[in-house]
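Homework help board

Subject: predicted structure for assignment chain

Our instructor gave us this sequence and asked us to write out the predicted structure in token form, then describe one feature. I got the tokens but I'm not sure how to describe them. Can anyone check?
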Amino acid sequence: MRFDIITLFPEMFAPFLASGVTRRAYASDQVAVRLWNPRDYAQGNYRRVDDRPFGGGPGMVMLVEPLQACLDAIRADRAEDPATQVPLVLFSPIGKTLDHPAVEQWAQSPGAVLLCGRYEGIDQRFIDTHVDAQISLGDFVLSGGEIAALALLDAVTRLQPGVLNDAGSHQLDSFNPSLDGLLDCPHYTRPEVWQGQEVPPVLMSGHHAQIERWRRDQSLQITARHRPELLAKARAAGRLDRKDEAVLAKIADGL
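My token output:
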């Protein structure tokens, strides 16, 4: 798997690629990351990568020529067959919001070229010609696409085999199919009592069936209180059984 990232600020990625549990995947090229600065492909003494928008208005627009030259260099370096080349992804407010099913799909892919926009935006002609998909992190605006690219990289990399210390860790993540798309339950560790607050006794009982039921009930409760729309999706997909519905009925009585 390989991600080529077009960014005017490649230095933003250096600490991320060298930190945390995912660094092993980047160091070994299990998830290869290549950084490309369009300024390196700009012309002239000042190597300009932006200009004022036609029609006036605030801000600057990224020029199409440096982006085209940079993309050409990436495609050549990847030595791709044009018929099977990886998609070019732009992080943009109009994109589909990134969610767990999308991350799982990207985790099974050969990678992509990630375009991190800056300033007021990117010349629309480049988008129309080359962009295959657009992704958003939510209904808010960032200074550039770098944070979104980092989020996608981290989410995809942690799903790769052998990246996490415990191979089953991500199976218990919120939104995971093993949790039927619900939120994760609370977790506890030592000490058993902290500032008068005790760990729920069931977690220390050694009774695995009861522990699993408690965790499921907590997951249902947290999801009902904070993300009820996820419950609706799980119910529509037939993922909730009678025990789940009984728990939810009790929760509804108490809400």
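Reply (TA_rk): Your tokens look well-formed. For the description, you could write something like this. The chain has nine helices and ten strands. That's the kind of observation they're looking for.
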